[in-house]
Design goal:
235 residues, alpha/beta, 5-stranded parallel sheet, 5-stranded antiparallel sheet
Length: 235
């Protein structure tokens, strides 16, 4: 089931979008759970990364759709956002929040169905390699391909990613098993590394993103075997 949010302050437009989604559901065989919000602050307050697709009006009273999208992107890089608007001049700002598309008011079913189909395709392509991480401010969705490595530090884990670094309170074991099938390897007690980003091995360490991460003696042979197998699997 696809979790879809409609963020629209005008009831008539919200009902039209719900009708269009239900019509698309009947035609395509995709099943949706629709949640309606009447303002940007409603969806951002306590956002937990629970949606696959968000249809977001731009002009709203308390928090406009663009600001709401910026807040959502701080926690959720994967949710597909489509703006509903009669103002085309928001296109440049839309790129900053990685909006998939715009649906222009008045909305036609044909245009809407085409763009909803595109949103579903994007959602399914990305969902296979997404993990959900509990953060103090909510749930963060993270594409595992974007992780350089994870470092254990006391009771915390430091994530080093292409999109920046962050820290959570968790144990290595919580992620070691999840990532084992995606070319990650625990090089020693303190690191889980993404073999995709290993630039070399020297002096008992692997090089990732300019950092030297120690490989324990006990794991060195297994690490080199895993790295060799990964390199051999590349096209």
């Amino acid at each position: 089931m696809i979790q879809l949010a409609i963020v629209e302050d005008e009831d008539s437009y919200a009902r039209q979008l719900e009708d269009f989604v239900n019509k698309y559901q009947a035609e395509s065989g995709n099943y949706f759970k629709i949640t309606r919000f009447t303002d940007g602050d409603e969806i951002t307050n306590g956002y937990k990364g629970q949606f696959d697709i968000i249809l977001m009006d731009i002009e709203m009273k308390l928090m406009d759709g663009m600001t709401a999208a910026e807040e959502i992107r701080k926690l959720d890089q994967e949710v597909v956002i489509m703006f509903i608007t009669n103002m085309t001049n928001y296109a440049i700002r839309g790129y900053q929040v990685d909006a998939l598309d715009y649906v222009l008011k008045p909305v036609s079913y044909f245009a809407f169905s085409q763009k909803l189909g595109r949103a579903i395709s994007k959602m399914r392509k990305s969902s296979a390699k997404i993990i959900s991480i509990d953060m103090p401010s909510g749930v963060k969705k993270l594409d595992i391909d974007n992780i350089f490595y994870i470092e254990s530090e006391g009771h915390n884990l430091n994530f080093y990613t292409t999109g920046g670094d962050f820290t959570i309170r968790a144990k290595m074991g919580d992620f070691e098993e999840q990532l084992a099938d995606y070319n990650f390897f625990r090089s020693n007690k303190g690191y889980i590394v993404n073999l995709k980003y290993v630039d070399g091995v020297e002096n008992g360490s692997c090089l990732i993103a300019g950092k030297q991460l120690q490989i324990s003696r006990a794991r060195k042979n297994d690490f080199m075997s895993a790295l060799t197998d990964y390199m051999a699997s590349l096209p």
